[in-house]
Amino acid sequence: MSWIAGTVVIWLAAWALNVRVAATGWARTGAGRLFVPLLFGATILVVWEGLVRGLGVAPVILPAPSAIAAKVATSLPVLWVDFAQTFLKGALPGFVIGCGAAVLTAIAIDRSPFLQRGLLPVGNFVAALPIVGLAPILVMWFGFDWQSKAAVVVVMVFFPVLVNMVAGLQASERMQRDLMATWGASYWQALVKLRLPAAMPFLFNGLKIASTLALIGAIVAEFFGSPVYGMGFRISTEVGRLGLDMVWAEIAVAALAGSAFYGLIALIERWVTFWHPSQRH
Amino acid sequence: MSRVLPVLTVLAGIVVVWYLGAVWLNSTWVYDQAERAGTTVTLAEVIPQTMAQERPLLPPPHQVAAELWKGVAGQAVTSKRSLVYHGFVTFKGTMMGFALGIVLGVALAMSIVRFRVMDMSVMPWAIISQTIPIVALAPMILVVANQVGVQDRDVPKAIIAAYLSFFPVLVSMVKGLRSPDQMQLDLLRTYGANEVQTFVKLRLPASMPYFFASLKVAIAASLIGTIVGELPTGAIEGLGARMLIGSQFGEPLIMWAALFAAAILAGMLILAVGAVERFARARMGVPA
Question: pTM here?
Answer without folding.
Answer: 0.82
